Amino acid sequence: MARTFAVANHKGGVAKTTTAQTLGLALADLGERVLLVDLDPQACLTFALGLEPEQCGPTLHDVLLQRVKATDAVIDVGRVQLLPANIDLAGSEVHLLTRTGREHALGRALDTVRDGVDTVLIDCPPTLGVLTVNGLTAADGVLVPLQCEALSHRGVAQLLDTIADVREFTNPRLRVRGVIATMFDPRGRLAREVLGDVHTRFGLDVLEPPIPKTVRFAEAPGRGVSILEHAPNSAGARAYREIAAVLHDDLRTGAFA
After folding, report:
1. For residue 187, what are the CA distances in angstroms to 146, 236, 252?
2. Whether residue 140 has pLDDT greater than 80
3. How far is CA 3 from CA 141, 190, 256, in A?
4. How confident is the model at residue 205 (pLDDT cuts 50, 70, 90)?
5. Contacts of 129 (CB under 8 A, 6+ apart)
6. 141 forms bridges with which residues in the sheet?
7. Cβ-count burial of 65 within 10 angstroms (0-12 exposed, 13-18 middle, 19+ buried)?
């Protein structure tokens, strides 16, 4: 059975999609079978992998509405698999609100595909609504991309409140695997202070190294590739590979399974 990580932070613009895509590809390069799940109606992960979301079908929307099984919607995208999304997924949220056990819809759908992969990475939307709760309920662990700025603490506190609720009501096994510092600028003290405070205040592990800010990340999605292909020797690519190696070691040793 695969381990499943939700990549979550309800604050937008913190590189959730970049983190899900790049870690997934880096884990695949280490020999893992990886499934990426695009749980965001904006479908940025689907686009970043070189697909046109509106031309994809069936998608996660069809899976959540029980029109098809997840096995019928998963597609091969290079060295990973993808459960794609498009704007129709926004309608799934409305539909789920009327269903009993709505928090478990994604988890039940993924049960049909987990045996065929080692790691599932769920790219959650920048909200704390029913789709994100589904992602957290389906996950074993949470990876929290964090832009190191003054208001970051408030967002982390709100996310941890939601995680606590999910633990209590729908998924008692859920744990936070760690914080990933994104768009990190080492030139000032603020970034290091924020990271240190997140560890001290919330007791969260910070996965090293921080992901540096670089224009290479912005260039890659338009080419339908990740920074691992676009700028493989860049500091950003190296940092994601190092974090992927830590997560891969977790799988190898059973430290976080």
Report:
1. 17, 16, 36
2. yes
3. 8, 34, 8
4. very high
5. 93
6. 5, 175
7. middle
